[in-house]
């Protein structure tokens, strides 16, 4: 839900930058790809090596700029079905890198025991749900149904794990990351169930 309310803010902030990029002939797809490269590189290099604060800072900046490609596409009249497909596909790669890196962090830096096992399991579940939620919507739409319902958007999921990682990075309990992954996994599961139910009603 945070993603919906934040769009007007990001539009106001990034429209001037989008205008500059338009003058430089930078394509929206190039912006999309660059954001994914930075996200994957930051997640895979900083989080597993326990540089959580640096990782969170970079990922917050990239996440905040996530709407830049769309703004640029509208400004340059280059909105396209392929651009939408590319953005959605690369978002899944970025999400996998973030949740996978947090799972790897748990495997490398939490003491062996129940806490580590629980966190790894939740990390795997969060990674799966992060892919299942958008897939359920995409598949529903391909069948002519609507599946936009859900208790958490992509932005909400990333903010949740970002807060957990940030709190842990400044000395709070590592259980904050565990709790964040649990929230993402549960929210994802609930959203998938909601989408299954609403599509069942529409398709019979």
Outline the structure in words.
By secondary structure, the protein is mainly α. The protein has a single domain, classed as CDP-alcohol phosphotransferase transmembrane (TM) domain (Four Helix Bundle (Hemerythrin (Met), subunit A), Up-down Bundle). It is built from eight helices and no strands. The longest helix is centred in the middle third of the chain and has 29 residues. It is flat, with a radius of gyration of 18 Å.
CATH superfamily: CDP-alcohol phosphotransferase transmembrane (TM) domain
Report the span from N to C terminus.
Answer: 28 Å
Overall CATH architecture = Up-down Bundle
Report the total helices.
8
EC number: 2.7.8.-
Subunit structure: Homodimer.
Pathway: Lipid metabolism; Phospholipid metabolism; phosphatidylinositol phosphate biosynthesis
Subcellular location: Cell membrane
């Amino acid at each position: 839900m945070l993603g919906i309310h934040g769009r007007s803010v990001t539009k106001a902030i990034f429209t001037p930058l989008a205008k500059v990029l338009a003058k430089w002939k930078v394509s929206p797809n190039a912006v999309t790809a660059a954001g994914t490269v930075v996200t994957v590189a930051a997640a895979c290099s900083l989080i597993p090596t326990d540089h959580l604060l640096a990782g969170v800072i970079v990922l917050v900046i990239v996440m905040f700029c996530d709407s830049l490609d769309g703004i640029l596409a509208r400004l340059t009249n280059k909105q396209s079905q392929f651009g939408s497909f590319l953005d959605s596909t690369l978002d899944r790669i970025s999400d996998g890198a973030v949740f996978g890196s947090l799972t790897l962090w748990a495997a490398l830096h939490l003491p062996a025991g129940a806490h580590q096992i629980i966190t790894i399991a939740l990390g795997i579940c969060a990674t799966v749900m992060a892919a299942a939620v958008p897939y359920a919507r995409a598949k529903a739409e391909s069948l002519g149904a609507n599946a936009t319902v859900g208790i958490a958007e992509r932005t909400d999921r990333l903010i949740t794990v970002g807060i957990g990682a940030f709190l842990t990075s400044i000395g709070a309990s590592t259980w904050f990351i565990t709790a964040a992954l649990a929230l993402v996994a549960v929210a994802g599961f609930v959203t998938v169930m909601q989408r299954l139910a609403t599509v069942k009603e529409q398709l019979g």
